[in-house]
């Protein structure tokens, strides 16, 4: 039985607070392109919500979390997956376009 979004967000927050996450090179590149810093990603993951769940990947379920950057204004989307027990992988991150579905 899949976990509820509330339980997944608890696990995501725990991983961030305990520094049990890895940022992929692709996510670093996307952060740089959107002028985001690690604190913005942490802010989005700590205060955000799951906007979408992708179960079609054989490597595991991915979650798109929507939150707000540290400036308390910029929306941030972060796609994550759990790779090993409790370890969170930040796959990509971006500032959603204003006309994009959130």
Written overview of the protein:
The structure is a single chain. With 102 residues, the chain is an alpha+beta fold. The protein has helices spanning 5-17, 25-33, 38-47; strands at 21-23, 49-54, 62-68, 75-84, 87-94. The chain has one domain: 2-Layer Sandwich (YaeB-like fold). The protein contains three helices and five strands; from the N terminus they run αβααββββ. The chain has a five-stranded mixed sheet. α1 (5-17) runs antiparallel to α3. The longest helix has 13 residues, at 5-17. The relative contact order is 0.23.
Question: Layout of helices and strands, plus pairs?
Answer:
Blueprint: H1 5-17, E1 21-23, H2 25-33, H3 38-47, E2 49-54, E3 62-68, E4 75-84, E5 87-94
Parallel strand pairs: 1-5
Antiparallel strand pairs: 2-3, 3-4, 4-5
Helix pairs in contact: 1-3
Q: Can you count the beta strands?
A: 5
Could you spell the SSE succession in H and E letters?
HEHHEEEE
- Structural class, by secondary structure, is alpha+beta
Largest β-sheet summary: 5 strands, mixed
Q: What's the structural domain tally?
A: 1
Write down the CATH topology. YaeB-like fold
> What radius of gyration results from the CA coordinates?
13 Å
Helical fraction equals 25-40%
């Amino acid at each position: 039985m899949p976990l509820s979004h509330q339980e997944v967000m608890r696990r995501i927050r725990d991983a961030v607070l305990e520094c049990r996450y890895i940022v992929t090179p692709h996510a670093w590149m996307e952060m740089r392109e959107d002028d985001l810093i690690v604190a913005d990603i942490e802010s989005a993951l700590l205060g955000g919500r799951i906007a979408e769940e992708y179960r079609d990947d054989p490597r595991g379920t991915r979650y798109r979390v929507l939150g707000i950057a540290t400036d308390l204004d910029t929306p941030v989307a972060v796609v994550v997956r759990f790779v090993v027990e409790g370890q969170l992988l930040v796959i990509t991150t971006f500032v959603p376009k204003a006309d994009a579905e959130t």
